[in-house]
Amino acid sequence: MRTLSLVKAFFAPKTSLGEIDAESAAALLAAATDVALILDTDGIIRDRSFATEELAAELEGEKPWIGRPWLDTVTVESQAKIRALLRDAPSSDGSRTRHVNHPSEAGVDVPVLYSAMRVGGSKNIIACGRDLRTISTLQRRLLDAQQSMERDYSKLRHVETRYRLLFQMSPEPVMILDALTQRIVEANPAAAKLLGDFGGSQVSERSFTEIFAGESVLAVQALLAGMRVAARGEEVRARLADGEREVTVSASLFRQENATFFLVRLAAPAAAPAPVASPSDAGFLQLVAHTPDGFVMCSPDGAVLAANAAFLDMAELPTEEYARGERLDRWLGRPGVELDVLLANLKQRGSVRLFSTILRGEYGARLDVELSAAAIGAGETLRFGFAIRNVARRLASERRPVLDMPRSVEQLTELIGRVSLKDLVRESTDMIERLCIEAALEVTRDNRASAAEMLGLSRQSLYVKMRRYGLGDLDDTKE
């Protein structure tokens, strides 16, 4: 108790401070506190001092505190603390500090840390307050930072859960190796099922090279060594340790937590696709299955019946089962538009040649393709065959000729600065609209109903625009 009292009070205040008058005591209070209040025994504010004008404006606003009860200057939840301060003030040690909030004109409560005591023989109570806005702001920022970290951590947990679920459910054997020791750190269920139990140990406890036969170990080690140097390497074929099964090994290098790992995939060697059941010659069907161009056979409503490996690669599909039964426009052209036009032309003419469109892969890839199609059979045996060629790398000069641009393009650029932008835009829009209509009529071989559907117009709107631009024979009702 002696130590505590020495900490809280001066050793010899009468000697060291001397005689301090009221003005000196007031200046001392104003300098030592942010808020100083002089209250009577009823808790009415008789005088006050603020450290800054900004703090005074925020606390008092247009309602001066002098003459008002101290209770009326604080928020409802802080009134009990004010009563406790007034009750404990007459004691010799004064009241303990209390954190109270004052309503502010700005709308945000101002936190102040108060202590109150009665000095000397006076009946008045002195309340000293410390402005806690800076500390409150820091605490609020800390809370916001913690909440932001929690949200980020939650997102990371969700991402990790999704990728771990993908890793576990992947039908392809996948393993993660330590790049330094080449030991298996983790293997998904497909890998464990493929490799089985080696010597009674779990797959994740073994060296990666132990799962291969002796003659294949060097090839796998060369693959991993190449990945360390160049971060890429070719797939290699290797025989498993049982000597009966052969797999294709591919690897990727990645870093995590200052360590390097390999992501290794094991896949069975690609087998030739089974020929499509048909009375046609088996050799010819096998040739179609291996052609580098995509080939798809569809039913009259556009559902895929069979597809070769080239089409599966372009559509980013693992097996033919993923495509069978789906409409071809899931990947080809605009859904519900271009395929319907193609099917209508095939039913009417029996074939379509060099139709340019796009092919969308399952994972977002987009390819410029060119297709030709033919119809075989009739009635219930009617089938459509589509030969699809990837022309994404073809030079612009090798592509299908595009309609010649009118000379008005050059004329429009020459008019810049002499004609308003509104007029230029209107003329450019008319030119583009005419080109699109001409292109649609060419693609559909002047089938105006199909052209209108491809352009997203009604047939009557197409006729109006054709009449406007003087396109085609408007007396011809060919559809």
Topology diagram in text:
Layout: H1 2-8, H2 13-17, H3 22-32, E1 35-39, E2 45-50, H4 53-60, H5 79-88, E3 98-102, E4 110-118, E5 125-131, H6 133-169, E6 174-178, E7 184-187, H7 189-195, H8 214-230, E8 236-239, E9 246-256, E10 259-267, H9 282-290, E11 294-298, E12 304-307, H10 309-314, H11 338-349, E13 351-360, E14 366-376, E15 383-390, H12 408-414, H13 421-443, H14 448-455, H15 459-469
Antiparallel strand pairs: 1-2, 1-5, 3-4, 4-5, 6-7, 6-10, 8-9, 9-10, 11-12, 11-15, 13-14, 14-15
Helix pairs in contact: 13-14
Tell me what the structure shows.
The termini are far apart. This protein has a five-stranded antiparallel sheet. The radius of gyration is 42 Å and the shape is elongated. The chain folds into four domains: about 110 residues, PAS domain (Beta-Lactamase, 2-Layer Sandwich), CATH 3.30.450.20; about 100 residues, 2-Layer Sandwich (Beta-Lactamase); about 120 residues, PAS domain (Beta-Lactamase); about 60 residues, Arc Repressor Mutant, subunit A, CATH 1.10.10. Helix 13 packs across helix 14. By secondary structure, it is an alpha+beta fold. The protein is built from 15 helices and 15 strands.
